[in-house]
Write the structure tokens for this entry.
Amino acid sequence: MNKMKFMMLVASIVAAVSVEAQTVRVAYDAVTPKAGEKEGVSITKMLLDADATHSLYYNAISLFCDSLTSTPEGEKQLKEMQFAAFVKVQPDGSIVIDKTDKSVPNKIIDLYVAKDNGAAVTTLYDKLADASVYYTEPFDELSWNIVEDSTMTVLGYECVMAEAEYHGRKWTAWFSPEIPVHDGPWKLRGLPGLILMASATPEIYFTATEVGQTASGVPAMYKTDTYYKADRRKTLSDDEHYQNHRMTMLKAKYAGVKVVGGSGGDEVNVIKDRHALETDY
């Protein structure tokens, strides 16, 4: 090995060690079909913070709201701000709840995904069927086939394609060996490099919009003791039923209150083959 190649090898090893010693932060656009609609997509801004031992996939506004509501003082402060922004009394005395005001933080994304590399376990936290639940699964439920001769560039990083059959859907992922973090968006992980793009259908995909580092480390979740353990398949099935009857339940719960910013009062039609990331329930 000549001196130049040796120096390049040393530089690559140092860079890899440096990345693994830091917390990598990746911003993703998570694109999914609009709930209950036959066409159109929703784009959610998500973050992945990952180091050599664990990671958390989350929405920054949701984490901020949870940090406030984790204390009585913070919860009171947030509720007062939201009440002032969202609750409107009409001239006829009726009340309208308008949650479209973006000037106040409002938690609308309940999803968190935590991965523990030591225990080889993924834990998903979410509000499903109107309940705060979590479920775990071993890493080996997701197994990839790497297609080495298929490459593309994402955010300036050369990526390699991989495919997997996972919980009812076929996923195609693009990972970068240049970033030695075996993680990715949502529950996707386990490739020899960071997953920068992944898709299951034309309307279900994750795309990295920024890759960097954070000195604050992987954040901790708040109020994990308020979630109860659930069976993955049963909970996903229950949630589909709840989503399809949610407006009827809301009308019964908030009789006399008009809710603005939802589906206009009509029931939706959530179909797992179009809307669910996992369809094996």
About this structure: The helical segments are 3-21, 60-69, 72-86, 232-253, 272-275. DSSP finds five helices and 15 strands in the chain. The first helix runs from residue 3 to 21.
